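User: What would this chain look like folded?
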Amino acid sequence: MMTYIQNSTSTFSPLQSPGMTTGSLNSLNSPNSAGEAGSFKSALLKSIGDVNSMQMQADQAVETLMTGGDADPAAVLTAVQKADLAFRMMMQMRNKVMQVYQEVKDIRI
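Assistant: Here's the prediction, encoded as structure tokens.
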């Protein structure tokens, strides 16, 4: 279950392309001059980062379990299910946003 993009030296969020630098991603996260600290964009980027970290933790727990490390199978299963549920919810939110976008785009003035 590897839905995040990982490079050998760093991890990229799903919205970040490999060509983007950390500084350019931070500029996306920083509020603009209007002072929108609680903007939709920042909430969206934070939730995507949370889902990505859950998936990375679940992947690390599975790897620890499979390599014979000290891992509780129930905790590993819980982490995997939690990451899967978070990813599915994020995809449903994305689908709803795309559906609303299509409806707004089809409005004739």
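The radius of gyration is 17 Å. If you want, I can go into more detail on any region.
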